[in-house]
Amino acid sequence: MTILSTKDLKKVYGSGESEVHALAGVNFQVEKGEFVAIVGTSGSGKSTLLHMLGGLDRPTSGGVTVDGKEIFSLKDEELTIFRRRKIGFVFQNYNLVPVLNVYENILLPVQLDGGSPDQGYIKEIINTLGLASKLNNLPNNLSGGQQQRVAIARALASKPAIILADEPTGNLDSKTSQDVLSLLKVTGQKFSQTIVMITHNEAIAQMADRVIRIEDGKILTKEAV
Question: Could you tell me which residues come within 8 angstroms of residue 2 by beta carbon, excluding any fewer than 6 positions away?
């Protein structure tokens, strides 16, 4: 079952001589339960692509379909609600709320949507990610690896259709990066989660099920790992 797809996705910044084609007609699909890495150098268009996939920015033309919904057919407020319910984000800088403890950060997307958390499911996520002893800690009392595990738990909490991870190990050392990526993969498999990860790191990308390469705003190859 295809959970995410793009159709001739284009993004142009500027005009005239300063016109930049950040995305130049991107087409690909991701199946439910896949762990896909999108790899590219700086300026290749990979971060622009992630912003489009997550509905954080609108394309110049083309479309993105998530869980059967063409997201750019939605008005801004509808898109915000859809994104909160269907898309989990894991960012390089963690983006945890500093005044909330670990447990409150994990529950935040569910509570923002006015829902009641599935306590059994949340507990299972916490235990899988090894966070049970840290629930009352504030983010600034955690290591970078621990903060990223909290971010993964938060992304999983609302049972989204997909998780988008933007350079999730960019601020971590190599051993912690491997540990965090292993946990991301394990949780994805355990909770039947679809993950799309942006990275420039070839070693990290090889942990995915499939690698998509992007350069100059175009998809070059789509290869199984």
Answer: 29, 30, 31, 32, 65
Contacts of 6 (CB under 8 A, 6+ apart): 26, 27, 28, 29, 52, 53, 62, 63, 64, 65
129 occurs within a structural domain? yes
Quote the domain boundaries for residue 83.
Answer: 32-60+73-224
Evaluate if pTM is beyond 0.85: yes
Question: The domain spanning residue 112 has which CATH number?
Answer: 3.40.50.300
Report if residue 27 sits inside a domain: no
Taking only the tens place, the pLDDT of each residue in 36-83 is: 999 998 889 999 999 999 999 999 999 999 999 999 999 999 999 999
Q: What pLDDT score was predicted for residue 107? A: 95
Nearest in space to 23 (alpha carbons), one of 8, 41, 42? 8
